[in-house]
Amino acid sequence: AGWIAHDYTHGRGKWCSFMRGFGELCGGMSTTWWSDKHNLHHALTNVVGIDEDLMVDPALYLWQPAPENDSWLRKIQHWYWALPYSALFAIWRIDSFKVVLNRKLNGELFRLLAHYAIWSMLFPLKVFLPAIILSGLLTATIVTVSHISEDLFFDGPHKVDYVEAQLRSTRDFKCSNPVFEYLSGGMNYQIEHHLFPIMPRYKYPALQKVLMQFAKEHNIEYRLDGDWQVLRRTINNLADIAKAPTDPKGPLSRDDSYPTLPAL
User: Fold this and answer.
1) How far is Cα 7 from Cα 199, in angstroms, rounded to an integer?
2) Judging by beta carbons within 10 Å of its beta carbon (0-12, 13-18, 19+), is residue 256 exposed, middle or buried?
3) pLDDT digits (tens, 9 = 90+) for 86-141
4) What is the largest CA-CA distance in the chain?
5) Parallel, antiparallel, or unpaired: how do β-strands 224-226 and 172-174 relate?
6) Beta strands in 22-145 (DSSP E)
7) pTM of the entire structure?
8) Largest CB tally within 10 Å, which of 8, 59, 63, 100?
């Protein structure tokens, strides 16, 4: 449901507009909250202080923090990374309620309440809660491996050409079996999705060949790993940061000086 809702929110046209409520009804998340957060991530991928997908400290650190912002947990983050990943869907669901209540989005609120009412009738709590934890772990793993080990931009937005920024901040991964391909929901073609977010996902394999040639012609690295390889790269990156010393100039992951941050 999450990947389909993601596609409908990105999509254009009458059908996608009609189906935008699918996110609340079947996914349990506010479409408005998701649009604000996710569109900003697409526009300013890996821009520190703006991209909310980088705002994961102190649970995880993606660069060397300043001493006053450090935590002893950083030293072992490459061992426990799956725990904060598992909390992703729970956090998103809480943020969704904050948005619909603060902005008085009654239609979205009704669909969220209907979602929980239907699920409570179909599944007991001992099934529902593990499902949220497992889906959070799966989604967080799939989407973060494409970005957090790539280039981070510490100097603010719009310092790099948009296409180059996407190629430098994003990595595709090739699935080793049909099950992984299905579970990835097209997000293994993350470069293609970031450059052409409204394109149907079934066209990504053909587009990948075009973009690989484009990157070659413009002397830009096209980043592609296998599925297990990209996961190892992510864990190794967390381990490298865990072992690194603090940096007195380490920036905060949240910077209120940028007015583009979506308000809850």
Assistant:
1) 9
2) exposed
3) 999 999 999 999 999 999 999 999 999 999 999 999 999 999 999 999 999 999 99
4) 56
5) parallel
6) none
7) 0.88
8) 100
